[in-house]
Amino acid sequence: MSPTQSSAADVVLEADHVTKHFEISGGLGRDTTIHAVEDATLQLRRGQIVALVGESGSGKTTLARLLAQFYPLTSGQIRLDGEPVRTKHEFADREYYSRVQLIFQDPFGALNPQKSVRHALERALKLHHTFNGREELEQRMLELMERVNLTPAADLIDAYPHQLSGGQRQRLVIARALAVDPEVLLADEPISMLDVSIRLDILNLLRRLRDEEDLAMLYITHDIASARYLANTVQVMYAGQTVEGGPVESVIQDPQHPYTKLLIDASPDPESALSAEGSGDLGEPPNLADPPAGCRFHLRCPFAMDICKTEFPKRSELGNGHWTHCWLHAERPQPTTES
Amino acid sequence: MSMRRLLRSGRVRAGLIILAVFLVVALFGPWFVDHVLGMPAEAIDYDALHQPPGGRHPLGTTNNGQDVLSQVIVGARSSVAVGVTSAVLATVLAILVGVTGGFLGGRTDQLLTMFTNLFITMPSFALILIVAGYVQGVTWMVVAFLIGIFEWPGGARYLRSQTLSLRTRDFALAMRVLGETRSRLIFSEILPHLTGIISALFLRAMVAGIMAEAGLAFLGISADTISWGTMIEDSRNQSAIRLGYWWWYLPPGLCLALIGTATALINFGIDELSNPRLQGKERKLVRKFDKARRRAHLKKTEAAAQKDAAGRVMVG
Amino acid sequence: MLEVSGLTVDYLTANGPVRSCNGVDLTVHEREIVGIAGESGSGKSTLITALTRLQRPPAVTTAGSILYHSPGHEPVELTTMTDGELRRLRWNEIAIVMQSAMDCMNPVMRLGDQFADTLRAHRPGIRRQAVKERTAELLQLVGVPADRARSYPHQLSGGMRQRSLIALALACDPRVVVMDEPTTAVDVVMQRQILTQLLSLQDRLGFAVVFVTHDLSLLVQLADRIAIMYAGRIVEEAVSDQIYRNPFHPYTRGLRDAFPSLHAPMGELSGISGNPPDLRNPPSGCPFHPRCPQRLEQCDSVLPELLPIDGRRVACHLHTTPQEEISR
Fold first, then answer.
1. pLDDT band at B2 (very low <50, low <70, confident <90, very high)
2. What ipTM does the predicted assembly reach?
3. H or E element, residue A12
4. Interface probe with B: pick from A93, A114, A126, A176, most Cβ of B within 10 Å
5. Where are the domains of chain B?
6. Which residues of chain C are within 8 Å of residue A159 when distances are taken between CB atoms?
7. Which pLDDT tens digit goes with each residue over B9-23?
8. How far apart are alpha carbons A261 and A251 in whole angstroms?
9. Local structure of A83: helix, strand or coil
10. For the structural domain made of A9-99+182-268+283-289, what CATH number should be given?
11. Helix %, strand %, coil % for chain B, to 5?
């Protein structure tokens, strides 16, 4: 089922024109504002994986953490089942987290080094479910471990994080998130810290979870090839702005935004040889404490126009659910001003 | 788990043994002095005034004919008692203020930090002197309390910064995303990571307490009980240094130094554990290997040279 | 140019030595880009540090030799060199680029001063003006504006730092540049930029490159020849195209298939099952046998040798055992 056909009822969690600015006090009144996420819109649907692709500093992790209610929004709204979510200070209540879970990038960091596998799973289960006695709890823990292929479960349940391999640790992190029976899984670069040979295993696990448990999933990555492998739809972020999105094949095989093109061209692809030609300067992302006006990619864009420097384009629909924020595809505003 | 690794270090074991000896002395010393040595610390031996070590008095006697060994043993009790009590107080305060501020953040943290900084900038020793001057009948508890109340701010600051960084570590965030309760987050996830720091803080506070007690006694603020501080103060009062009665002030001084050394040894051990670069065992192995290789290399070149020489002889 | 044979490196630990590089043979020819691919713990970084004699205790080279050939000179043995001889060889002949530029640069020294230090150390008597000109030239070579020489490392972006590090490596016109995951810490676009620059520099200056990474698809694009390492040994070595199109060793195949493709039609990929080996307690026989989908009977007991077959080298019983024996 392509996302265009799916109805709005499938949407579990959505970010609606979300903006996040971090105020950082530099002492002596030299406060700076980091424009981390600007006007981002994102919908997570049951049984679908959305990949959020971008380089470091593109705001993809911030967006995921906003969805996990790590910090309050600057503007915009996050809705769960259509209901706006409001958190006062930081972090939501247990009720919210029983439906939305987050998987961290670094599985070693996400596990308390002093606590065993049993502790991690037991806390997650006990916080969100009630059990009739130890036996049932024990049974559930072993089941969870089996579900993520953390086997032999009976042997590993008393292990400590440092006794597990990288892949096993990430499986444990996933199992812990699954323990609460969430509807949404936010995965923040879940494979980037893992060894190459086990990355695919974890991707396959996430894929299976989507299909078998009908999970809505956000997959954050800088690796566009893995996004193609895992996701149904993809959104590309650059310097806090969402620049393009749509069905994964459509975006990757036929990118419309110059940044998406650059990103795909730059990704390693054994099918095409690397040549010394075109070793020109491709530029670097802007400083988010003082981002350029308009489209933030205009400094590096080979097609930059005057309007790109002043105004960020509205979303242009390209058909079949594919869209982009780019003046190359947007209708220019009339030169006459309203009067 | 890490305790066992800690105990493997010779330094830590030496430090712990020294501390344990002093603790035993503090607990059973007075009984031992009265019933085994039969020489109560206050008893005066008129036949032996300011005697150097030897004979009936292994460490000599004071100007008044009191046995120095007995005094050192009995003095250990109040010194250690003041040290431990003030350290408990200081550590508890440091944890309360530091961990709470670091964990909660925001307004609470600002307030607690201000409070901590206030205490740090206060001239603590002078304040203790002034307060003690007003208190009628100073007991060792009062001394311990006064010392403890000024001993915590440094530790609190350190614990705050550590808690702050632990709180934003991924594993703590992960537990928050599970909806873990606040008290469990503090006591089960964060505090266990601070045990090393807390025990180091405690030891440091204890030594500082013992030293402060001696210092206060030296300045005339002490309970009536004998402590190492009062011993040194008495000896100074009676011009022991000028008269050359070294056996009077040296033993309590050495005891103070020994306790300081013991805690330093233990802290080294804790450091070594938390900083793997300092681990010496592997370095030793490599040195051994290098030596063996150099020797082998030398032998090879020697043999080659010999062969060479032999070859030359053959040719010649 | 570089001839490594039987190189063995142990990490001395309290519980006995851990062998992280085991009898590695590798040759680097002039003007060649040799890629070394492997996962963490495969010994690829250990190999690099041993190759450049930069390893720190507790890592020690226990066996093997590294011969360095230069035209008009006798080949020299790197493993028995003294520190002084090594210092002369480094930068002038062999230069190194590490993964994290931040760790390799002095944080309190301006970029230009670091260049000056290196140049003066290896070109005694070089004039001040010449140092300045050379620094500007080197920075421009990698596309960093020359006025950046006045910046401190932390003032540069990650990409610029990494490029400056490459420029620094080229300061004394080395004949071999050894690179240990030089692009892991930067983003894909910057990675592409650095790599194309590296290629054009190599084209112009004619140095050889030893490039270590875990990213096989990147290596296929970049390198002439690739050696695949697993558990401290080279398990396959061949021309890049052969590694990608027709890998012999099951591990190489698994590694290749572990990277989803960008454009090719794609089905479910399987990757490599199981966990990387524990070097403290390596598996018997072929170290890959517990994870191998094409395991033979002798794999758990007999260690396959790295043997030349069809213009490549591979260490696998599948290819070194005569066909009739397999079917038996």
1. low
2. 0.86
3. strand A11-24
4. A114
5. 2-278, 281-316
6. none
7. 788 889 999 989 988
8. 9
9. strand
10. 3.40.50.300
11. 80, 0, 20
